[in-house]
Structures are given as structure tokens and as C-alpha cells.
Amino acid sequence: xxxxxxxCVSAMLLAGCTVGPDYRRPAILSGATPAPxxxxxxxxxxxxxxxxxxxxxxxxxxxxxxxLEEKALARNTDLRVALAxxxxxxxxxxxxxxxxxxxxxxxxxxxxxxxxxxANGSPVALKPGAVYDAMESISxxxxxxxxxxxxxxxxxxxxxxxxxxxxxxxxxxxxxTAEAYVSVCSAGLEIAVTNRSIExxxxxxxxxxxxxxxxxxxxxxxxxxxxxxxxxxxxxxxLVTQQRSGLFTLATLTGDAPEALPAGVAACAxxxxxxxxxxxxxxxxxxxxxxxxxxxxxxxxxxxxxxxxSTAALYPSISIGGGFGTTATxxxxxxxDRAFHWNVGPLITWNIPNLSVARAQVATSNAAAxxxxxxxxxxxxxxxxxxxxxxxxLARQIDTERELAAARDDAATxxxxxxxxxxxxxxxxxxxxxxxxxxxxxxxxxxxxxAQVSQDQIALFMALGGGWQDTPAIAETSLRRIAMPxx
Length: 487
Description:
By secondary structure, the protein is of the alpha+beta class. 59% of the residues lie in helices and 10% in strands. It has two domains: 18-100 and 146-311 and 356-471, Outer membrane efflux proteins (OEP) (Up-down Bundle), CATH 1.20.1600; 102-117 and 126-142 and 316-349, Single Sheet (Outer membrane efflux proteins (OEP)), CATH 2.20.200. Strands 2-3-5-6 form a four-stranded antiparallel β-sheet, with no helix packed on it. Strands 1-4 form a two-stranded parallel sheet. α5 (147-213) packs antiparallel against α7, α6 runs parallel beside α12 and α11 runs antiparallel to α12. The longest helix is centred in the C-terminal third of the chain and has 69 residues, at 355-423.
């Protein structure tokens, strides 16, 4: 330790000495370790060679969705909170950076009292009187061991983490807005399908009722047909609730009342879909783009810098400074030469007898840095897992939708055939009823599968971490606009 102190003091006029480890970016981000490939085996669904566009929602070519995204990214309250946190981090960094500039203070201390005669060498008590004292001091921390430099390094990393947190909030808001819009449109689609199914069931009931009136069909056929109609109609309230809930969510995300949303949103009955290969980029661009990975990396950098801050407490703090002032017993004398005084010199502070506390803090900082490294590794693994899961889920859901579309076509053909036979008096009612139920189920299953494809596409874009670049400015709220309570 003594050798390090002497070497730093000798180099004071050159560059100083910065204790603690120097930070290096993790290998997975610097390119030393290759990132994994994406979309392996799903090239027909995804385009790994094309980069993900910053505003991925524009791939849907849906003006309503574009407008909702613009409004949400400008007015969402979560983004305003994240922006305020970033401004706090930036203000804290400015405060640390200013500690590297000369610090000044002015003290003015007019008092009235009686000084101690013994303390002033007088054999008798001194008379009470006024004392006018003013002092201007200036000091500069030499930062020989890099405490301030490491503090600034940690502060800059904290600002980077706060920026990443804001970008992560943008990703979540963009995806949540698209999810809510998809929920509204999917509910609209399923409502339309259900209404068509209700009409099919109503037509079947009409045919059965006429056959019953003609004495061809029995009353049980009418009851069964009416039951099918009522069961189909019973699914509507839940779909309407889903639609309204999606509208309420959109209103919250965009900072609007539900009735202020564009009229076309509530009327949407076709969820947005991308039917061409989706551009996703490669694994390296994924990790560079995901804000949570960047946030974890910046937190790691801050934790490593804090080790240097803690280590600097093991060594003396040296600053130079001085001051000048005036002290007089009468107010007119404060400007006389005999009242002025000044001093200059170094100030050395070193808690030599109590280094155990500083060593404990160094151990704490080292443990925190190891935890931050583990958190970064976990964030990278989570990013890869979420993306690969989203890719597989979407690819398989597209296959499911394709099979259900074929099943729905078959059900429609079978229903048309049985209905024709039944209306001609050849077919059985139970066969007709079963065909109608199958068609209704096939229609609903296909609508649900299509809605799920749309939701899975949004989940993929969220996993890819896009949507924070090239966004509109966030509308800030001044404290002056907040109504203060009246007294």
C-alpha cells in the first residue's frame, strides 16, 4: 500500500492513479464470442438476413395502428415516469462531475458576546462586544486515487442504464398498444363470425320449424335447433367484453378517453397480419437492440466502477485550498488591512486506524459486481429464450391456422350437402344438426387461430426488442400544471 501511495503521489502532476478494475464489455457484445443464429429451420416464415425495421408496426400497413402507436409513444404515462428517472440520473451525474471543479464557500458570521480572558492571555475578564467575521474559502480535490473519476464513470453508466430503461419502456408500450389493438380487432372478427353462425343456426331453426308445422319433423328437432341457436348466441357477451376491455386498454396507453379513440378502432373486425416473411435480423443485432440487455450491461459497468470508488477509501484524500477573510470588532474596521487574514495549503484526510470499514465496503462492491455480471448473463439467456420461443410459437401457430382453414372449408362443404338433403326431405335432422355444429365450431376455431397468429406476431416483435428507435418526443408535464390544494 505504501508503495502505491508513493507512486501515485510522484505521478500526481502527470495523470494521477486510478484504483479498482477497468471495465471491459462482455465478450458476447464485443463480438469476441459469436452470437447464436435465429430462425433456423423457419426460413419460409422469417427473414434472418433483413434487419428489423425501427417502427416494426408499419409492416402491417394499418393507418389506425400507426396513429395509435404515435400517440402512445408520445403520451404514455409510463414513458413519462421513465423519462423523469433518466433526468434524475443525468442530474446526479452533473453533480458528481462538478466535484472535480474548485469548490468555494462564503461564510459571514457577525456575533456579539464575551471571549475567554484565559484563552486570550488576559489576567482579567474581557468585556463583551461585537465581532464581525467573514471568510471566503476555495478547495480542489486532487483525486490522486481516482475516487471522483470512478464516481463519474459509475454515474455515466447509470445514465446509460436509465436510457436503456426508457427504451425498454418504449418497447413495452409499442407492443402493448399493438396487443390491445389486436385484441379489439380479434374480438370484432369473432363477433362477426359468431353473428354469421347465429344466422346459420337461425336459418336451420326456420327450416325445422316449417317442417314441424308441415308435420314432417318432430318437436324435439325444433327444440334441438333452438338450443343450438341459443348456445351460439351465448358466446357474444364475452366477446363484446373483450372488445370493450381492449378499447379501455388502448385509451390508457394513449392517454385518451375511450370515446376519444378513432371510430374505426371500435369497428375493426380484422386483426392486422403479416403474410410475408418477417424480417428479424441475426442474433448479434438482437442482443445489441434489446434494451434490457443494454440496461444490464450498463448496470454491470456501474458496479465495476463502484469497486474503484470503494477502493479509493483505503487511501488518503488530498486536496489543496485556501481562504481569505476579515475579522474585526467594529463594523468600519472590516475593510482595514489589519483585519484581513488568509491561508493556503494542502488538506490530507486518511482514516488509517479504521480501514476495516473501507475493506468491508470493497468486499460489498465486489459482491455487487459479481451479482451484476450474473444478472447480465441471465438477461442475455432470457433474451435468446424469449426470441426462440416466440419464433417457434408463431411458426407452429401458422401451421395450425392453415390446417383449421382447410378444416373449415371441409365443414362448410359438409354442411351445405346435409342442408340440401334435409331440406329435400331425404337427410336426417341429427346429421344436419351435427354438420351445423361442426361448421360453427370450425368457424370459431379458425377465427381464434387467426387472432392468435396476430398476437404471436406482436409477441415476436416484443421479444426482438424493437420499437424504441426513431420515436416521437415524450409530452412532458410541468409541475406548474398540477393544481395545488387551497388553504
